[in-house]
Amino acid sequence: MSGGMIIADVVISGLLLLGGAFALIGSWGLAKLPSLMSRLHGPTKATTLGVGSCLIASMVYFPAYGHAWTAHELLITLFLFITAPISANLIAKAYLHGCRTEPDENAPAAEGMPVAPPHDADWATFGRDEELEEMILGETGDASPERRS
Amino acid sequence: MRRILPHPGLTAMLLLIWLLMLNSFSMGGLVLGGIFAVLVPIYTAAFWPDRPGMRWRLPLLLFLLLVVRDIIVANFHVARLILFRRNRDLRPSWLAIPLDLHSAEAITLLAGTISLTPGTVSADISTDGRHLLVHALDVADPAAEIAHIKARYERRLMEIFR
Amino acid sequence: MSMEFLVATAIGALTAGGIYLCLRARTFPVVLGLAMLSYAINLFLFAMGRLVVGRPAIYEKGATGYTDPLPQALVLTAIVISFGMTALALVLALRTFLETGTDQVDGRPDPDLLDRENRT
Amino acid sequence: MHLILLALLPFLGSAWLALLPRASRGVHAGIAVAHVVAALGLLLFVAPGVLNGIADQVRYAWVPALDLSVTLRLDALGLLFAGLILGIGLLIVVYARFYLPAGEPMGRFLSLLLLFQGAMLGIALSGNILLLLIFWELTSLSSFLLIGFRSDKAEGRQGARMALAVTGGGGLALIGGLLLLGHVAGSYELTDVLAQGDVVRASPLYPAALVLILLGCFTKSAQFPFHFWLPHAMAAPTPVSAYLHSATMVKAGVFLLARLWPVLAGTDLWFYLVATTGLITMVVGAAIALFRHDLKAILAYSTVSQLGLMTMLFGFGTPAAALAGIFHLLNHSLFKAALFMNAGIVDHEAGTRDIRLLGGLAKLMPITAALGMIAAASMAGLPPLGGFLSKEMMLEEAVHTAWLGAPWVVPLVALVGAALSVAYSLRFIVQLYLGPQRDAYPASPHDPPAGLWAPSALLVALTIAVGLFPALLTGWLITPAAADITGGTAPEFHPALWHGITPALMLSVIAVAAGGLMLWRHGPLLRGWELLRLPDAKRLFEAALERLVQWARRMSDAVHNGSLQRQLALMFLLAVVIGVEAIWYGGYAPGTRPLLPAPPVAIVAWTLLLAATAAVALVPRQRFVTLIYISVIGLVVSLAFIYLSAPDLALTQISVETVTILLLLLALNLLPKQPVQLSSNQERARNLLLGLAGGTASGLAAWAVMTRAPNDPISSYHWANSYSGGGGTNVVNVTLVDFRAFDTFGEITVLGIAALTIFALLQPAARGVSGQRLREWIADLPRSPERHPMMFAVAARLLLPLAMMVGLYIFLRGHNSPGGGFIAGLIVSIALLMQYMASGFEWADQRRQIDEHALIGFGVIIAALTGVGSLLFDAPLFTSAFGYFTLPIVGKFELATAMLFDIGVALAVIGAVMLALAELSHIAQRAQKEPAEDDGPMDVDPAKLRGLQR
Amino acid sequence: MSALIAAPVLLPAFAATISLLFRRRRRWIGAGVSIGATALLLGITVLLMIEASEGGVAAYALGAWPAPFGIVLVLDRLAAMMLVLTSALALAVSVHATLTSLDRRGWHFHPLFQFQLLGLNGAFLTGDLFNLFVFFEVLLIASYGLLLHGQGARRLTAGVQYVIVNLVGSTLFLIALGLLYGVTGTLNMADMAVRAASLPAGDHGLFRAGGMLLTAVFALKAALLPLHLWLPRAYAGAAPAVAALFAIMTKVGAYAIIRTGPLIFAGAAGRYMVPAALGTMILGFVGFLAARHLRSTAAFGLIGSTAILLTAVALFEQSAMAGALYYLPHTTIAAALLFLITDLVIRWRGMEGDAIVATPGYPGRQLLAGLFLAGGVALAGLPPLSGFIGKLLILQASLSSSWWRAIWAVILGTSLVAVIALARAGSTLFWKSDVTPPPPARRSAPNLAEAAPAGFLLAMLVLLTAGAGPVTAYMEAASRQIFDVAGYVRAVLPPPAGAGA
Amino acid sequence: MIAYALIGAMACVSAAMLLNLFRLFRGPTAADRILALDTMVINAIAFIILFGIHETTTTYFEAALLLAMVGFVGTAAYSKFLLRGDVVE
Ligand code: NA
Ligand code: NA
């Protein structure tokens, strides 16, 4: 085994372990952290450094072991980097919406609800929708919104 | 020209992606990829009516490198938070970041960057499009964090997007 | 534990769940049950080619072993067909619900519907 | 040849009449008469030969497999019967011409009558017992139509139904009987069957065959206890009653007894079944007849009685009795047809058939009265009429017959029957024609025009003549006919009015005396009879039928109760049972294939799958959450495919999964999210049990196969020929687009049809009840005001071209690496659907620039044309071709027709998926209340909000 | 074998897509293409039948891949007969649907109709079990569309059950196929027949399970007890003209049993099928009597008469099979005829539709009464129509079976029930005149031409009756072919020298 | 060395998936479950890459690519459903 190979092995192994570790930490965060908004931070690790390390390991591994160099890993990274923030954004919106409509189900977290932005605006998820306001605040009983959990 | 190459940057990107997928360089692949890279944006142009007005120059590359670096650093930081910080000691906070960017693409890129760097997640935008709602896992000083984000990312993005 | 055991029990569990759901009295769970059954069937059909790890049916000269490609082709066809069928069943269930106001399929009157009609 | 023509003539006449419904009554009658006369003439033409012992026969093979041939055979017995059918038939046609009121559709009536006549004639002429069956059932059918001719009357419909039920049912028994008979005899040709008497009677199947055949005969001939239908058949117009229900059809049963006499008669079983039935029927029918008041009912029950008499005679099993039977058959036909016509005239002229309202008609309608009284006298068995002779012969035979060793039983019962028939016949004479004239009748009775009475006059004349010169007038026919019945030489036929003082004569005298006595004391007897409260057959029958129908409804509704669960449970249960049965009977040996070790990661995946499965099954009421669990299952299955060397499957599974979830979510939006629990704990326990059984069965089956060595699968050929013969290294893909392209062609067709059906289902959903529901639909979830989140919209725009590029790549490499048209199509579809999700239906739909219907159509057509194209190169359908080409700059590349096929696949997939999902989301749009006009691709577009034109 | 063998599959594909692509143009294009293609199909299938009746079993290897590795189409007398029957029935139904404007009461009638034919014909032609599955799916999914055509609450409710039951059926089909492939390693029917004979003893149970399960799936399509529960509501729920076409669908199940039973599974299912078929017959004719609407009458009649067919099939014996084969087209056409009559009754009678209740007289009643009489006689198997001959053949052939007493009792007994039921229904529908309520405002006289397709079906029955001699001869030869496993294998598989690669 | 690292990495990913399962069942909000599923998909991608290295083949990478793309669509659809009820509007 040549020195180059040993270095490659070390690098690959390190990246693999790093990737695995971050995937685990991310999921640990997901399991452990107290509120959804906090938990959202966990998987970002898995997405970015976790998968990223594995991909880099793979990009090193194949040429190092005499196989053709592949670039698909880059593509996967690209897709993940494009989609992960949007996923997080949409999940956060869904969560915010849930907190707004069913506060009892979604116990308020440490950070509480975000304050409205200035200039008579609100966050897009909340908007200023009279119909919705009525539905949430009116609670006349007959609307009986569907329960989600 | 605009009809043939509605998004020249996109075309270039698609061609690159094609070559990456082919995993080998050949004239045949290049020609075919070129054809596809031109045809696909022509079809999808309808779904992307405006050019984002983006400059594919060095600042973009530098920005991306910066983001990658920040991702790595922040990852370790957040990993520490998750592993060693008790939940009740965390200082989660909402940040309303005032926006100077005004194109949807630019703001999305900013929001994406914020989300990708662990510790902060872009959660929403204000109805007037002037504020970005960001959640931070652990911040001591929200105002400083907002200033940091604006200085580090938004300023650079202002250069990239005219 | 062997892979065969895992696959067999997975097939069994999916079948059991699928059957259980299929026997429910409303269309939506029944459609879900069908979807679960089709997972079970796809795995089952696939398993009929026996299990092989890491030897996809990509032809290479001098390859030492390969997995049976035929069941895979069959499963592909089956997946597509069951997708079309599930979609149709689902839309039909929805459409029937819109037309009749009930999604019940056990041949008895729908308590929901009666309730609603009594109220109006 | 003559026989063919003879058999066809009535049918031809019937067809003519049916085709000319608008012709005049005269023309109708003319057509009918012409055909019957022609047939009669033809019959007379062939008669001499037949009587000289040369049975006429033609045979055309019809269904050799069944030994069913069109064999027509005319012997003396057939000649007698055919003569009656045609002769009386002719008279009836004439009578009907005058009888039917102007409003009745004469053409249809006569057409049916001739149809019936053809069927009867067929029975007489059939030389193949299966052919006879056909004609037999045809008589039931045509008589059904004739009885129900006056369909507006309930009695007509009920009588017709009852007649059909009884005689049709008997006919079905007869089918069984005759099939058995032919089976035992080894042939269905009558000649052959008749020759096999000993074989048949010795066969173990003889009792079954006999009973079945007798059921046929007895129902047709209204023998006790099947006698009840006949009187109700009298709802038919009188010509029909006269023809079918006295002279011809009801005699078919007796005729068949005679026809099969040589094969079936001569056993104790025959004697006790047939003779006893006849005996009982004779008495019962006569007794009822005595106490009826409707002329037609009296005649009908007398017919029952007389048919019993004939049956009894054939049941005796002796040649002499058979001779008497056939002689009485002739006599009865003559006087009974005359009596019915007579009753019809009375009904016609006096306006009622109720004997209690009539009487003293002799003075008012002397011709009618004379004819009626003579015919009735013959029925009573009074000398010097035909009826007397045959009754005398009957009594003679009865005297010589012992029943269960008792010599007195048969004579005594026969005497009772005879006395009763004297009584009802005399009643007809006395209470109808004689006695005092009434002050008022429902109408003013007078003799009808000659057309109505002439036919019966002819019959009465014949009755008298037969009485006076029996041997001369009938011997030539009766003797050979009797010989045909007994299958040997005929017994001597010497009928005479005076044989000396024989026991029969004494019995006859007693019968007349007793009959007279009974008529004298009719009033008290009637009161006694009414005290009996005998059940009314029609009411019983109708009630039984009603009960049968109600029972059938209860049973059918209980079985087919519309429960899907029941059906599915049965299916699953059956599948499990089949598995157990198969292993039980087929045997099982454990496999020997070495097992693959399971790494921890596989066990973890397995845990995920099992947990998600349990969750889906156990919390199905939280529908949204259930869908998330389903996604977990899909993910694990995809991983399993990857781990187990099936990348194509994984790709397909992953992409199909997504589209399925989209579909489910779209549908769930409009469905209840958390509905009321319906099934009881018990039902859930049953379902769980069935689920576990099914799961165990499928798991064990999978285990059993996976653990045994493969049995030299054909796929080794695919592996070996994929590259060299199919031009691709991805064997799965080559299998799909080449080895088994025909499957794939069917598969995309399925997908296309699914989409078209979804479209067809959802297009009209905006109308009617469903449209109403959609408009009234209220979102049952609190909804965020933002419809199109900005970041999502921006990302979707960027992903669309990327995904399309990936789709193209996956498509092109599919032949050699995992991928292919189907997956590529799904990727493109998903990318497009993402636009719908992000930017809204309206916005995306305007921009998609594809016609899904056309895509589906072109997809299927391209695939099919690729298959057909190979014919141009003289290769079989669906033969692929591939080649490696080199172009300057581009270099070497491969082209395969299979890829063209794959393009068809991809197009069909995109078309189908887009059509289905777009249509489904379109439906939801109709339930929305917000106007979709200024609906941009994103709700918050900062540039627009800041007034910066983009 | 020429490529013409694939025409019954490809022609409908082209017809379907053309009428799909031209859907926005004039209506007659769709209808014209559909009817024209169906007529052409009838011609082609007759040619194929002539070819089949002259030669032996003919095989056509698609893609030039030899059997058992590729998919083969196999044409024998049985397949040819099914093809002719299908296209003749389809012609009548498509003309009927067009004349009565059924095709305009929803989307895509003609494409779905043609796809249905594609599926049916493919199922009849294929010599490959998985390919059979695919065509089953094609014909099923097209039938879903056709069943739902026109929609309405009743149809939709019926459709849900029909679709789901058949989806579960498809699931079982795949399990059976998987087992069979897993054990025998092949999908080609002929090859499987060969391999089944030399299976190691330890595999017999699994093979039997696959075979029995497959037969059960076919029995589901054929509506055999206890798997018949789906049929009454589905067929009574469909537009009657569609149900008329569906008369052939139960026969697909029967066909598949006939095809695979003797060839591959040695008739193992027979011992269970006979009692099941007898039970079906009883339930079918009980339902026939119980029906409150003519369409239910027809649906139950279809169940009952198909059960007669299945009884004969279940004996798995050559002469009984010949009888079954003769009875098959008869029962198909008779049931279809009854459905078409139902449609005419609904169209002409007015408000009460096909409910078996008295109504005021209406124009066209006599014609309907006549047609109904003929259809009823045919379905009940009364003389003189072909059903009687078929029943005789079946009764006669069953004599050699130990089941004969039960078979006879049930067939003859249910015939009686059928007669009673028909008399009841017919006399109520066509005889009984209820003058209260008063007859509605005079309706325009019905278009008698609408009865032409029903007349065409009736003519086919007459033809089947009159030509019973040659037809039974054909069916006997077909039956011989069905039981000649060696001959089938010889025709499909290349000689051993060329086999294997 | 790589083999051990692979085993370690796979073990980590497996454990991560079990943690995801915990969150999936625990909820408490629907958004939590969506997040758990989304994370599970990311971990699956990591697993596929590790498996590819283990088998020394790139055949499975397209599956990972597709999963990256399609997992997002699923998450978006689920979230959109919670937000609006209607996934496409
Ligand atoms: Na971040
Ligand atoms: Na080919």
Description:
The complex is a heterohexamer of chains A (149), B (162), C (120), D (950), E (501) and F (89). The two termini of chain B are 21 Å apart. Chain B folds into two domains: 8-47, no CATH class; 58-160, no CATH class. Chain B has five helices and three strands. Chain B is globular and about 60 Å long. Helix content of chain B is 57%, strand content 11%. Chain B is mostly helical and 162 residues long. In chain D, helix 14 packs parallel to helix 20 and helix 26 (564-586) packs parallel to helix 30 (681-706). The model of chain D has no long low-confidence stretch (mean pLDDT 89). Chain D contains 40 helices and four strands. By secondary structure, chain D is an all-alpha fold. In chain D, the strands form two sheets. A two-stranded antiparallel sheet of chain D has the order 1-2. A two-stranded antiparallel ribbon of chain D has the order 3-4. Chain E has 19 helices and two strands. Helices cover 73% and strands 2% of the residues of chain E. Chain E is globular. Chain E has 501 residues and is mainly alpha-helical. Chain E has one domain (2-436, 448-492). In chain F, 84% of the residues lie in helices and 0% in strands. Chain F has helices at residues 2-26, 30-55, 61-84. Chains in contact: A-B, A-D, A-F, B-D, C-D, C-E, C-F, D-E, D-F. The interface between D and E is large, with 125 and 134 residues. The site of one sodium ion (NA) has 4 residues of chain D, from loops.
